[in-house]
Structure formats: C-alpha cells, structure tokens
Amino acid sequence: MEFIIEMCGITKEFPGVVANDDVTLQLGKGEIHALLGENGAGKSTLMSVLFGLYRPEKGVIKIKGEPVKIQGPNDATRFGIGMVHQHFKLIHNFTALENIVLGVETTEKGMLRLDGARERIRELSDRYHLHVALDARISDVTVGMQQRVEILKMLYRENEILIFDEPTAVLTPQETEGLMETMRELAAEGKSILFITHKLNEIKAVADRCTVLRKGRCVAVVDVKDASKEDLSEMMVGRRVGLSIRKTEAKPGKVILEAEHVTVKSRTSGVALVNDVSFRVREGEIVCVAGIDGNGQSELVYALTGMSPIDAGSIRFEGRDITADSVRRRGIGGMAHIPEDRQKYGLVLDYDLACNLALQTYFTPRFCRAGFLKYKEIYRYAETLIDRFDIRGGRGAGTPVRGMSGGNQQKAIVAREIDRDPKLLIAVQPTRGLDVGAIEYIHRQIVAERERGKGVLLISLELSEVMDVSDRILALCAGRIVADVRPDEVNYRELGLYMSGSKTDIGEGDAFRGEA
Q1: What is the C-alpha separation between 71 and 45, in angstroms, rounded?
Q2: What is the predicted pLDDT for the residue at 308?
Q3: Which uninterrupted H or E stretch holds 62?
Q4: Range of the domain at 124
Q5: Number of C-beta neighbours around residue 452 at 10 A
Q6: SS3 sequence, 248-262?
Q7: What is the CATH number for 439?
Q8: What's the rounded Cα separation, in Å, for the pair 126 and 113?
C-alpha cells in the first residue's frame, strides 16, 4: 500500500500525563482509516499533532514519504490536511458562510466577495448532502448544523487528507448514513481519510483498517473486515464489553413531570419552535424524545429546566407548578440536567475538575460555611466521583477542565448530576462522544435510576440508544409530538418516518397527552 501519511514514533506529553507514547500510524492513499480508543486514549491529541495544533516531543511525520515539519494549522492546510474538530472551531457571531471561507476569502479592491463562494458551497452542500443556512449566525444554529459547517470548511479547501474527529456525534441516523456515503465517495476520488469514532457500527460500515489506542499507546492495527465489533471493543477497553442493555420491565409510578400545552417561540422570528407540546413522565420509567436535530428538542429542554421562559402552557413537577421557577430552584427541588452542549452549558472550562463537580452543590452546608467554600471537602468529594465514574485527567481533581478530552468532560457532568440523587433526570445526548465502555456504564446508570423509581427524560439522536434504553418514545417533528410508541411496537424505519414527519399516529385535533 502506498502511504500518503506516516506518523512514526510520535510522543506527546502534557503535565502529569503522556498522551501519545511512541505511536505509529500509517494512512494509505484512498484509504478510510479508523482511529479507535477509550476517552483519553490520545486519539484527538494524535490528530492535533498531525494538524499542527500540538508539537510532539518525539517522532517524525512523513507526507508521501518525505519528512515534514508541521508548525501550525496553516502548514497543515498547505500540505493538504484538513480537520473536522470534535469541539467546533467556529466564530459564533459570524455566519455559516463567513466561517466556511474564513482564511481563504476572495477579495476585490479590498472588498470581500462572497458570491462565487456561496455558489461553490451550495454545490458542495448538494453533492454531499450537507445543507446549512449560509446566512444564519453560528450562535443561532443547531449543534448538528455547526458540525456540517465544519465539514464544508474542509471540503471547500479541497484538502486531500481529511481528519474527521467524532463527526457523527451530533448527526441523526439519516445524516450519518449520508456522511458515510460521502466518505466512501471521497475515498473513491482518491482522498485519504482518518476517522476518529467510538461507534463500532460506523467502523465496520466504512473503514478499511483500524488503529487501536489504549492509554496513549498503539495496541493493534487490524483490517476491519477481519475483526468483529466484540473484538474491536475488547482491544479498545482491554475487556469484554456488553453491547446490549439489560433491564427489567418498567413499572411506572406517579407522575413526576407534566408539561401542559407548552409553546416556545423564536425570539427573533416569532415562529413556534415548540408547538403546543403536552406529555408526562412517571417515576420508574425512561421516556425518550426522538427527533431529527433542530426540531425543537433543545428549546423544549431549555423550557423544562428553566434556561428559557415559555410563551404558553405550564410545567408541573411532583404536582407543583414550576413554570416560573429558576434553574437553581428546579435543581434543589430534584431535577438534574445533562445538557446537550457540555462546554457551553455543562462546564466552566477555566475551572478545575473539582470545582466543576461541585457546581450544583457548592452553596450547600457540606461545601460552604459562612459564605466561604470548604475546598478540602470539595476536593475530597471530587476524588470519590473520579474513582466511581473513571474520569481521567492528568492532575486528578485539580485538572483544568478545558484540557480534558470531550468524553471525560461528559463523564464529569454525568457524575455530578447522577450523584445528586435527583427525582427526575433530564439527559440530553448523555453518551455523545463516549467510547463503548463509557456508554455501557452510563446506560447502566440511567437504567439504575429508573430501577430506583426515578423518572428519566432522555433526548437522543441515536436510534439504537432510543430503542434500547427507553420504555416509551415520543417522536418530535417541527416542534410537535407526532407519536407516542413503545420500542417493541416500532422498528427503526418506522421511527425514522415519524421523526421526518412522513408518518404520525396523532390525529388532527387529538388531545394528545404524551402518556401511556
């Protein structure tokens, strides 16, 4: 095989941790090469070295057999390397179009010319099924659309070596299938792709070879066709992982959360993003809201958790009207929230891990006395959660959260929210960006909450997660609930039709209650 990229003996260290330890990776021309590993195994670090964001302490990078020095992303771009980052590198007050062309703009007499770029981006969008609202500000679009903007940035630059770091973490199943097909087309055109993912189905579907990292070291390089999903997961985690979810039949109790005719309108256009939604969540059940990204899930969660007001309707928690309650009051009352965007809503990135783990409880007598924080107790508490939830950071409880891997940031949020012993857990994409071992653990935690009689409202774009974890499924389309079904009553295709609005089991004028 002709190798277009060779990373030989790469070592990258951070304070207290060796992220990459003598790692060698070879990418063939026209190959789709998967990079697999647990959270914190060093995958994103290795790709950041290739893209010039980090400089390794040891090792050599070769492009087409010639050693090169990549001092920064501009060098990487010059060598034909593009990267879709796990945490998007976008300017939020720029439009999607401006973000895509940033750095390679066309100017005429000092004026920015976007007409040609707009047309070319539209062609790319149509060709690769990556449609975005080009004139919308990044701050106003969904996470899924931000991901598509990142991919278009790379395609617009005509890079020959493409790095995808968890590209499907925020995509729907239909969008994921489209991206897989896009990757095959790109590889057939001669482009070479490095593909970081935790999703074994995607590796089996699209990758030619797979390099497995564990704790910063390369433990295997395999031909994907010769390895089963169980083999790959065992190489990654170092043990056999249960890929199916075991749970008993749900025994719903009293109503814990009740949404009555909730409507949330856009602050700019006035359009109803959540349109007359009513449903109930009971103790001892997992209710999942399934829908294509951008159909009102985020706005519904913001309303339920108090992050934004509602325009009509009411929300009751344990029979008490909480429509006007603050986020803190809802939290103290027993509502926990794992947010969709961990960096924007779940963490304070410049705080260390211990302080982030105490964000929801720092004002309680356990951690605060006479207005002063009890730091020894906060750090002692953090160490117990780090052990229980296997949260990895180079400095333990003192690790700056900004420098942690995305998966470990997510585990920190899950640990903080579940440990509060909530009466209701609202979990939005709780396993996004996690490896199979962490997914297995978090699914067990969610099911355990249900077994303990707690209510769980799960919002997920992963159809496998929706079907495997939930007791009831509410399909959301264009801000309305269009179906209330049980997993054993529907298949993947039917659920996809509900999510796209092609099918509904709620008739016009029905007084839909969203309950069994």
Answers
A1: 15
A2: 92
A3: strand 58-63
A4: 3-237
A5: 10
A6: CCCCCCCEEEEEEEE
A7: 3.40.50.300
A8: 22
Do residue 205 and residue 321 come from a single domain? no
Q: Are residues 440 and 501 in the same domain?
A: yes
pLDDT in tens, 29-52: 999 999 998 777 888 899 999 999
Q: Give the C-alpha separation, 335 to 305, whole Å.
A: 8
- 94 and 201 part of one domain: yes
Look at residue 127 and tell me whether its pLDDT is greater than 70. Answer: yes
Looking at the domain assignment, is residue 282 inside a domain? yes
Query: Quick check: 281 and 450 in contact, CB under 8 A?
Result: no
Q: In this predicted model, what pLDDT tens digit does every residue of 333-372 receive, in sequence order? A: 999 999 988 888 999 999 999 999 999 999 999 999 999 9
Last residue of a domain, one of 202, 237, 272: 237
Q: Is pLDDT above 80 for 243?
A: no
Per-residue pLDDT tens over the stretch 392-424: 888 899 999 998 877 788 889 989 999 999 999
8 A C-beta contact, residue 352 and residue 399 = yes
Query: Which residues are bridge partners to 265 per DSSP?
Result: 272
The two tokens of residue 294 are 């951008």
Amino acid at 127: R
How many CA atoms are closer than 13 Å to the CA of 271, on its beta-carbon side?
7
pLDDT at 387: 92
Q: Is the dihedral of CA 296, 301, 304, 307 positive or negative?
A: negative
268-288: average pLDDT: 93
Among 198, 218, 237, give the residue marking a domain's end. 237
Residue 372 forms part of a structural domain: no
Start-to-end CA span in the chain (Å)? 57
Say how far apart CA 445 and CA 339 lie, in whole Å. 16
Of 125-139, 213-227, 231-245, where does mean pLDDT reach its minimum?
231-245
Shared-domain flag, residues 185 and 291? no
Q: Which two tokens stand for residue 509?
A: 């004028």
d(CA 473, CA 480): 13
Residue 450 domain-assigned (yes or no):
yes
Instruction: Please tell me the total count of domains within the chain.
Output: 2
**Burial zone of 276 (CB within 10 Å; 0-12 exposed, 13-18 middle, 19+ buried):** middle
What average pLDDT does the structure give for the chain? 88
Please indicate, yes or no, whether residues 229 and 256 belong to a single structural domain of this protein.
no
Looking at residue 516, what is its pLDDT? 41
Q: Is residue 411 part of a domain?
A: no
Q: Do 57 and 129 belong together in one domain?
A: yes
Q: What is the pLDDT of residues 483-494, one digit of tens each?
A: 999 998 888 778
Q: How far is CA 297 from CA 121, 186, 294, in A?
A: 28, 32, 7
